[in-house]
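Before any further analysis, we paired sequence with structure tokens, yielding the entry below:
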Amino acid sequence: MIATDWPATATRFLALRLPPGADLRGAIESAFAAEPEAAGFLAAAVGSLELARLRPAGRDDAIEVAGPLEIVALSGTVSADGPHLHLAVSDSAGTMTGGHLLTGARIRTTAELVLALAAGQRFHRPHDPATGYNELAFD
């Protein structure tokens, strides 16, 4: 296990409300890039999508899930190397689909997000030969 910690007082919260048509992942990346902190995570997320673009577990290709969809869960970390975000959505029948959030997931009515920004920390994603992926590291 690799771990880091920081005092709760070093965490700042940024609330976002995204309008219809906005790209969910792109908006998170842009909001983070505009802030001085180098480490962040999603503290809360609710809203709806007209389309979700996901990469399910064990796959290299994207799937598209047509809406209307409710955001059931959105979690992950954000760094200057990019985000690692997982999204779960449900359709009008309550069927859930989830995976890695990709660019192109469009907001339907709104998305309300709270991004936590950690002062004094730096998240980055070097290549991990054990997994073959760029994995989270801390400074």
